[in-house]
Amino acid sequence: MDTGQGTGNRILVVGAGATGGFFGGRLAAAGRDVTFLVRPHRAATLGERGLRITGLGERTLIEPRLIGAGEITQPYDVVLLSVKATGLAQAIEDVAPAVGRGTSIVPFLNGMAHLDALNARFGAESVLGGVVKVATTVDADGDVVRLAPMAELTIGEQHGQPSQRLREVCGLLSAPGFETAVTADIITAMWHKWVFIVTVGALTCLARGSVGEIVGVPGGARLGPGILAEAAAVSAAAGHPLPAGELDWITEMVTRRGSDFTSSTYRDVVAGQSTEVEHVFGDLVGRARALSVDTPLLDLATLQLRVHQHRTATAL
Ligand SMILES: NC(=O)C1=CN([C@@H]2O[C@H](COP(=O)(O)OP(=O)(O)OC[C@H]3O[C@@H](n4cnc5c(N)ncnc54)[C@H](OP(=O)(O)O)[C@@H]3O)[C@@H](O)[C@H]2O)C=CC1
Ligand SMILES: CC(C)(CO)C(=O)C(=O)O
């Protein structure tokens, strides 16, 4: 595998939504051999409008190469798995024909449990760990919209050892418009991203507002650090303590006065959409129980999101 285009460099992006559309679009724009595995209604939108990345002054248009489940005839070299946790089981079945002996799967999902599902289905040697730091969404027209400038992809071997294929995958996944990095401890990186996501998700969902709205009322500034302490305690008990600098950074994010920062979970709740409650919140509080860590605030947030999930499911 080298980093040019052609045989040995075929990338399949599963899902062309907020993250897959962004990173896959960037890679396609850089001339990489990118195909998007999409379902019929997304294929129709992309076929009509193309893949557009907007926001922060950007107007990128790509003519994406699309494929449907059932049309995959040979393995790809790298599979970027960018579905939400609620679509994971189906996506695993749909993408299976694309996974051969030399395929590396890079999951974009928040949380941890997807690694177990992917390892069980494809073997741990096929699955890299992945952390994406980006803030993107899909608007009513189907365009990928950037909400904040950060754009980073970090990958690593689950076993933590350096490898030639990790370097090659990193090269293949490097393109202008985002940073790509490798780490020797992707499991810890995934845990720490998880702590951040549940903290901002629980804060904004429990208090129903942006960070600035929450810290602007009496008592509001204590909630974020309280939630962070619980999530960080679970991560530490699982063997992944957060360094002081990372705790300080998250604390600053959840206590910044005037901040309009929210979370994708809160935006989904407000829009009446389903969330990744079990994968992102339920799994963490389940692990907290198993590790004998008390998480009353996270339990409450999880309960609230479960009620929302039940309501959206029964409203269908
Ligand atoms: N958005 C963000 O800023 C960030 C998201 N993440 C995480 O990344 C993961 C993906 O999130 P995000 O990209 O936002 O989600 P989106 O819902 O925007 O995109 C997921 C896409 O996957 C598609 N999909 C689902 N199942 C299949 C399937 N079987 N075959 C083909 N396509 C499928 C969906 O298509 P369809 O339209 O057909 O349903 C949808 O377009 C989540 O775990 C999220 O938590 C992490 C960091 C930042
Ligand atoms: C906070 C953010 C935008 C960062 O990745 C995110 O992924 C989320 O809110 O779920």
Give your account of this protein's structure:
Catalyzes the NADPH-dependent reduction of ketopantoate into pantoic acid. With 316 residues, the protein is an alpha/beta fold. It folds into 2 domains: 10-184, Rossmann fold, CATH 3.40.50.720; 189-314, N-(1-d-carboxylethyl)-l-norvaline Dehydrogenase, domain 2, CATH 1.10.1040.10. The chain has 12 helices and 10 strands. The strands form 2 sheets. It has a 5-stranded parallel β-sheet with strand order 5-2-1-6-7, covered by helices on one side. Strand 1 (10-14), helix 1 (18-29) and strand 2 form a beta-alpha-beta unit. Helix 6 (186-207) packs parallel to helix 9 (244-255). It is globular and about 55 Å long. The termini are far apart. Ketopantoate binds at residues 133, 135, 197, 200, 263-264.
Shape field: globular
Indicate the mean pLDDT. Answer: 96
Unique ligands: NADPH dihydro-nicotinamide-adenine-dinucleotide phosphate, ketopantoate
The separation of the N and C termini measures 46 Å
CATH architecture of the largest domain: 3-Layer(aba) Sandwich
Radius of gyration: 19 Å
- The overall strand count is 10
The CATH class label of the largest domain is Alpha Beta
Report strand order across the widest sheet.
5-2-1-6-7
Helix content: 40-55%
Total domains, how many? 2
CATH topology category name of the largest domain: Rossmann fold
Portion in strands? 15-25%
